[in-house]
Write a structure and sequence with these properties.
Nucleoside Triphosphate Pyrophosphohydrolase
């Protein structure tokens, strides 16, 4: 087991499913863990509720006004660097506006079964396998 250095970062992410495909986003080469794929979302700011944080992040990152649904998974992960993250994944059953890539290298809609073909962040890997297998959503 890796030792945690510093505090655990609280992160929220959206599982947006449309016509059998999930929205996934690729980090730029200038972000930490460059070019890795992830689900849209981000850090919970001090005093912010998780759903409010996710709504804000989705507006900032992809320009949508989202209705945040149920929490469907919670994962704790410690990276090799010792930094730790607690990820809370929420379904997003509906949103207003069109998806607009504001910060990512790429944004794609991917069929459930094809998710494991993408190079996701380590913290997301088990969730990706569970989504691909139809265990979640």
């Amino acid at each position: 087991m890796r030792e945690v250095t510093g505090r655990v970062r609280q992160v929220v992410a959206a599982l947006i499913l449309r016509e059998g495909k999930f929205l996934i986003c690729q980090r730029t080469q200038h972000q930490p863990m460059p070019l890795k794929w992830e689900f849209p979302g981000g850090k919970i700011e001090t005093g912010e509720q998780p759903r409010d944080a996710l709504r804000r992040e989705l507006e900032e990152e992809i320009g949508i006004d989202a209705r945040i649904g149920d929490e469907v998974a919670r994962i704790q992960h410690v990276y090799k660097t010792g930094s730790a993250v607690e990820l809370r994944f929420f379904s997003v059953p509906e949103y207003k506006s069109e998806i607009e890539n504001r910060i990512f290298r790429d944004v794609q809609w991917v069929e459930r079964a094809k998710l494991p073909e993408y190079d996701f962040l380590d913290a997301d890997l088990q969730l990706v396998r569970d989504l691909a297998a139809g265990k979640i959503l």
